[in-house]
Amino acid sequence: MGPVTRERALGALSERRFDLLVIGGGIIGAGIACEGARLGLAVALVDRADFASGTSSASSKLIHGGLRYLRLGDFRLVREAHAERRALMQVVAPHLVRRLSFLMPLYRGAPYRPRTLQAGLWLYSTLARERLGGLVSPERARKAVPAIRLDGLRACGLYSDSWTNDSRLCLANVRGAADSGATVANYVEARELTEVGGRLQGAEAVDHLTGAEITISARAVVNATGPWVDAVRRLEDLAAAPSSRLSKGVHVTLPMPRPWSAALTIPHDKVRVSFAVPWEGMLLLGTTDTLYDCEPGDVAATAEDIQQVLDEASMAVDPDLLRPQAVLSTFAGLRVLPGTGRDTASARRETVLLRGTKGMVSVAGGKLTTYRRIALDTIEALRPELGIHRLDRAPKPLPGAADPGHATRRLARQFPQLAPDVRAHLVHAYGTLAEEVLAPTTDRPELLERLHPDAPELVAQAVYAWEAEWACTPEDVLRRRTTLALRGLTAADVASIESPL
User: Fold this and answer.
1) What is the C-alpha to C-alpha distance for residues 268 and 287, in angstroms, rounded to an integer?
2) Which of 183, 242, 275, 325 could form a disulfide with 12 if both were Cys (CB 3.0 to 4.6 A apart)?
């Protein structure tokens, strides 16, 4: 079931010579590995921790054009993001990327006028090549978002974007890479880069779970380590100058007593916004945007961060929902912003590819929505040394990609005993691979039990995470293969399932 075992992958890392070594298993690195393997390259993908354990599981969970980027003049980025949003929804991962309406309320004292908002939504729609919305009445807004504050509401804009489960989107790319022949291994750290004749030829790595040392040989190396991009660049060149700065983003999850059919985009000044998003049956709030200059691995949400998120949400959300004692979970992530200025909120969300003195390509910056384009641009930069004659940029389905409605009906026929919320959750998380997840339940019906009564996840998903999704620790299962940690659930049943490693 699923990809090759971790033990076999570790053996292959030291036995094969690869065309491409990708260091960093977040969404950018996983996307590069997936696209490279599909081209027929021999690809190795390693991460010092778990796949998606950094920023790629700590985002706002949105696949969006970036309405606020219009204020920054990033029309090209907005256009590209919309194109990628359509590709992800229609071809690449329609089960994981779903359309969602957004309301932008303007209250007294808002940073711009209703007419300006209407013009911005028109331009946003034009760049998206579709009609995404306009101004709506307070009554219509309240119907979509029962908890929206109406007092002082001057106008409310409506537009459309999409939401996703960021960690599962990353894992789908890892799975796509593995299915196309890539060798993938988490908890493997590249500690030293090796060179021959002044060109990088791989890395000396260590497996953090066993302590085993691994020599990885490769013709080309990509550094896609996100917040650690400059640390890895210094493995190639101790004198490498800083390429970027880090912005800290904090999010909070809360219960949602009544369902919302739209999210809120809350403006705070002429550039910065925060979000209140109905996500996996919870209310997801965020994000902050503050300069961070400490060790990336130490990033965490402070009490002040959490209060800021709640206070900013209270501008548009009923304060009764925003009590600190109701918080289910918090998480913090780091955006990589190219350049070395001090400003973060107004910084352009661009991506820079840096070529090192010994040939390594480093990816600085990026956006979840455009990860596939960034991956293809990175491979484009390596075409000469990899001997790639033609780079096919057409979107291709990830493993499990399916029309959600069709997949749900098929699952209902095969497993009629599943509750509707469980069925919907499985289709969103796995698409057609849900059938693979549930296959062992035919002989082991106990796997159909929920991991927790307040969550849709099944015991079968935890088993699948260990056996087919590279989970190595309970946290890997709780936080990235399922939503249990973000629901604030201890999930003792998960922790008690013994890993086969």
Assistant:
1) 12
2) 183
d(Cα 76, Cα 80) in Å, to the nearest integer? Answer: 6
Q: Which has the closest alpha carbon to 461: 482, 475, 446? A: 482
Adjacent-strand bridge partners of 102: 159, 263
Q: Which phi and psi angles does 346 have, rounded to 5°?
A: -95, 5
The DSSP string of 381-433 is HTHHHHT------S--PPTT---HHHHHHHHHHH-TTS-HHHHHHHHHHHGGG
Q: Could you read off the pLDDT of 70-111 as tens digits, one per residue?
A: 877 788 889 999 999 999 999 999 999 999 999 999 998 888
- Full DSSP string of 6-73: HHHHHHHHHHSEEEEEEE--SHHHHHHHHHHHHTT--EEEEESS-TT-SGGGSS--EE---GGGGTTT
Q: pLDDT tens across 333-371, in order? A: 999 998 765 544 444 557 899 999 999 999 998 899 999
Identity of the residue numbered 329? S
SS3 per-residue string spanning 420-456: HHHHHHHHHHHHHHHHHHHHHHHCCHHHHCECCCCCC
- Any residues with CB less than 8 A from the CB of 133 and at least 6 apart, and which? 101, 121, 125, 157, 158, 159, 160
| End-to-end Cα, the chain, rounded Å | 15
Q: How far apart are CA 5 and CA 66, in angstroms?
A: 39
CATH topology of domain 93-163+245-338: D-Amino Acid Oxidase; Chain A, domain 2 (3.30.9)
| CATH number corresponding to 6-55+167-242+350-386 | 3.50.50.60
Is the pTM higher than 0.85? The answer reads yes
Position 343 scores a pLDDT of 47
d(CA 204, CA 69): 41
Q: What mean pLDDT, rounded, does the chain reach?
A: 93
Query: Does 499 have pLDDT greater than 60?
Result: no
Q: Is 136 helix (H, G, I), strand (E, B) or coil?
A: strand
Question: Which segments within 242-386 are labelled E, that is strand?
Answer: 244-255, 262-267, 273-279, 282-286, 290-292, 329-338, 351-355, 361-365
Amino acid, res. 137: S
CA distances from 128 to 4, 123, 159, 244, 295 (A): 40, 9, 11, 29, 38
CATH 3.50.50.60 residue ranges of the chain are 6-55+167-242+350-386
Coil vs helix vs strand at 227: helix
Give residue 76's pLDDT: 86
- Hey, is 326 helix, strand or coil? helix
List pLDDT tens digits, range 410-447. Answer: 999 999 999 999 999 999 999 999 999 999 999 999 99
Residue 45 CA, chain-centre distance (Å), reads 17
Residue 144 structure tokens: 């979509």
239 contact partners, CB below 8 Å, separation of at least 6: none
